[in-house]
Specification:
single chain, 390 residues, alpha+beta, Butyryl-Coa Dehydrogenase, subunit A, domain 1, Butyryl-CoA Dehydrogenase, subunit A, domain 2, Butyryl-CoA Dehydrogenase, subunit A, domain 3, 3 domains, four-stranded antiparallel sheet, 13 helices, 46% helix, 15% strand, binds flavin-adenine dinucleotide
Length: 390
């Protein structure tokens, strides 16, 4: 067992930190919570691309760097630590590109991967529908063959990257007669075309990072299908492991964790620093314990990926645990900040930039998005403990 990073990996971490600190010093952006999923900055994504930090693990023949999953872990850990606005490329870089590498044909790899690496393809995730969330195989969006094309009709909801995507990844039913898991296929296509209507979803925090997407007689080329026709459900299950696996499930609110620790060190209450209050110290120390456990669970995911295996139970454990940590962090921050803590960022009286209420409200969705905690625990029960599938 070796918990150390190599000298080269530490050097890479420092390089990323230096870059991000300079960005903040230059006023390019301000660290914020949920910036990996809500922080829209084409300029920032372009800068990462210029550094060669998009598609880090992908093969060099498609413009990637062929580097390790551990290097990517280091990069994402630092992006999250500094609350960097990475949403434009996050989904494509995290899962869609890898899906194309695994199931796409050579033409798709040569066309799409360089666009993602160049920081030009922002890919939204179109899986869920009004009647298909945990039970994704119930989806009703149809892709009907017509000559050289498919005609897409239906509705997606909670599409991440929704308001700024220029490509969308969609799962749709290609065989309505087949058993529900066996008649689904994966597609990717540009959104800027007739037949696509994108309506923002305003979530509980006021963010419009998600959207409902309607397809009405949209015609796409057959070459937009990824992988095998009617095998899309099995392909997507594999991709979901990568969606769940990352440190963003643990560190999406790291700027809040950092800020609340600073706040108790700097703020006096009844003549003494909050950092001397026993209860506050206990609460923050407990969070640190949970944070460290979540980090180890996520590192375990990366270890599995380095071995070339798909992280399934590992990703489920890491996500279920880490999202609970983030919800706990937000609650503790609200407790410590008291009544002022409820003020949102727009108020000049809001402590720590209103991050606490944002996280408190936003974190409710963490245990739903990318697979609810209950569903993940079903995976752990069935595949980890050998209990009967539910
Ligand atoms: C903030 C946010 C972002 C999202 N981003 C995206 C996105 O980018 N793309 C996308 O396609 N979707 C996205 N989603 C949708 C997300 O994937 C679904 O919300 C999720 O799969 C749950 O589906 P549902 O909302 O239909 O709830 P349901 O599936 O109806 O579940 C309702 C409740 O029942 C429980 N439940 C369901 N089935 C079981 C079971 N078998 N055993 C035990 N309990 C069960 C669930 O845990 C949950 O508590 C996002 C959701 C949120 C909140």
């Amino acid at each position: 067992m070796d918990f150390e990073f190599t000298e080269e990996q530490e050097k890479f971490r420092q390089e990323v930190r230096d870059f991000l600190e300079q960005e903040i010093k230059d006023g390019a952006w301000q660290p914020s919570c949920d910036a990996w999923i809500q922080g829209y900055s084409p300029e920032f994504t372009k800068k990462l691309s210029e550094k060669g930090w998009l598609g880090l693990t992908w093969p060099e023949e498609y413009g990637g760097q062929g580097r390790s999953h551990t290097d990517r872990l280091i990069l994402t850990e630092e992006l999250l630590r500094y609350g960097a606005p990475a949403a434009c490329h996050w989904f494509a870089d995290r899962q869609i590109g890898s899906g194309i590498l695994r199931y796409g044909n050579d033409e798709q790899k040569k066309d799409l991967l360089p666009k993602i690496i160049a920081g030009e393809a922002y890919v939204g995730l179109g899986l869920s529908e009004p009647e298909a969330g945990s039970d994704l195989a119930s989806l009703r969006t149809r892709a009907t063959e017509d000559g050289d094309e498919y005609v897409i009709d239906g509705q997606k909801m909670w599409t991440s990257c929704g308001m700024f995507m220029n490509y969308i990844y969609v799962v749709a039913r290609t065989d309505p007669e087949a058993p529900k898991h066996r008649g689904i296929s994966e597609f990717i296509f540009p959104t800027d075309q007739p037949g696509v209507n994108i309506i923002p979803t305003i979530d509980i925090t006021g963010s419009t990072a998600w959207a409902e997407v309607f397809f009405d007689g949209l015609r796409i080329s057959k070459s937009c299908m990824i992988g095998e026709k009617n095998r899309g459900f099995y392909q997507v299950v594999n991709q979901l492991d990568y969606e769940r696996a990352g440190l963003e499930r643990l560190m999406g609110n790291y700027p809040l964790f950092d800020a609340i620790v600073k706040f108790v060190k700097e703020t006096k209450w009844n003549g003494d620093y909050l950092s001397k209050d026993t209860l506050i110290r206990q609460k923050l120390a407990q969070l640190q314990v949970e944070f460290d456990i979540g980090r180890l669970l996520t590192y375990q995911v990366v270890m599995v990926m380095e071995e070339g295996r798909a992280p399934n139970i590992e990703a489920s454990k890491a996500k279920a645990y880490s999202t609970a940590f983030e919800q706990h962090l937000a609650s503790v921050a609200m407790d410590i900040l008291g009544l002022y803590g409820q003020l949102v960022a727009e108020s000049r009286y809001a402590p720590i930039l209103g991050m606490a209420p944002h996280s408190y409200l936003g974190s409710k969705g963490y245990s739903l998005q990318a697979g609810s905690s209950e569903v993940l625990k079903n995976v752990i029960a069935a595949r980890g403990l050998g209990l009967p599938a539910s």
